[in-house]
Design the sequence.
C-alpha cells in the first residue's frame, strides 16, 4: 500500500488558520474562499483518519490529534519554505545586513531563524541588535541599522505594519480589582507602546494606578 502524502497547501491553510485564530482570515490571506478552506480541512481529516477540530462555543479548538498534527505541519512547512529559499538563493545572495529586533523576539525565534538563514545564505553577514522601538528607529535614521522589527505604530514615514496582535492584561489567577483600589502595574519606562496602551485603558476606566516596578529589559 502506497503511503498517503499530506498536501502542503492544505497544511498551510490548517496552520495559518490556527495562527490567525480564524480560518476566514486565513482564506483572505491565502486568496481563497472560506468554502475552499473548509474543503481542505475536510480533506486533511480524511487523509489522517482523525477529527482535527471540534466546536467549543462559537469557535473551533484542536482535538488531541489536531495538536499533534499542528506541530508536524509547522515543521513540514518550515522545511518546505527553507528548501525553496535555498534553491532560489544558491550562490546569489551576499553582503552585510544590520537588523534590529525587540527582546521578545531575540529570546524566542530569532536564534533559530538566524541559524537557518546562515545555512541558506552563507555569504551574507548578519549583525543583529536588540533594543527598544524608539532607539531602533533612531538607529535606522543614523544608518546604524538597515531594518528593524518592533512593536507599536512608530512615528516614521518608512514604518510599515506587517502584522497585528491582540494585547492582554497579565495578572494572578482569580484577581479582581476592587473599586477605589490603586492598581500596581509592572511596565517599561516610557516611551513604550504597551505601557501607553495600558495607562490609556486604565484612565478611560477611571482606575487609579501606580508604576510599581520597572526594568530596562524583559
Sequence:
Amino acid at each position: 500500500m502506497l503511503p498517503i502524502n499530506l498536501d502542503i497547501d492544505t497544511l498551510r491553510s490548517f496552520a495559518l488558520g490556527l495562527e490567525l485564530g480564524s480560518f476566514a482570515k486565513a482564506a483572505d490571506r491565502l486568496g481563497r474562499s472560506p468554502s475552499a478552506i473548509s474543503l481542505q480541512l475536510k480533506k486533511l481529516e480524511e487523509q489522517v483518519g482523525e477529527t482535527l477540530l471540534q466546536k467549543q462555543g462559537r469557535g473551533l479548538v484542536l482535538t488531541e490529534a489536531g495538536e499533534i498534527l499542528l506541530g508536524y505541519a509547522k515543521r513540514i512547512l518550515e522545511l518546505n519554505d527553507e528548501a525553496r529559499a535555498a534553491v532560489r538563493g544558491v550562490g546569489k545572495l551576499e553582503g552585510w545586513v544590520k537588523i534590529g529586533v525587540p527582546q521578545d523576539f531575540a529570546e524566542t525565534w530569532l536564534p533559530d531563524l538566524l541559524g537557518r538563514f546562515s545555512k541558506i545564505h552563507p555569504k551574507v553577514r548578519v549583525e543583529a541588535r536588540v533594543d527598544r522601538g524608539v532607539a531602533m528607529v533612531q538607529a535606522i535614521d543614523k544608518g546604524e541599522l538597515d531594518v528593524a522589527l518592533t512593536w507599536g505604530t512608530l512615528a516614521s514615514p518608512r514604518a510599515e505594519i506587517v502584522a497585528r496582535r491582540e494585547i492582554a492584561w497579565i495578572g494572578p489567577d482569580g484577581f479582581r480589582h476592587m473599586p477605589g483600589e490603586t492598581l500596581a502595574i509592572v511596565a517599561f519606562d516610557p516611551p513604550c507602546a504597551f505601557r501607553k496602551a495600558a495607562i490609556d485603558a486604565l484612565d478611560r476606566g477611571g482606575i487609579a494606578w501606580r508604576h510599581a516596578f520597572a526594568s530596562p529589559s524583559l
Notes: The helical segments are 8-20, 23-30, 34-48, 64-89, 103-106, 110-120, 133-141, 193-204. The chain has a mean pLDDT of 86. The first helix runs from residue 8 to 20.
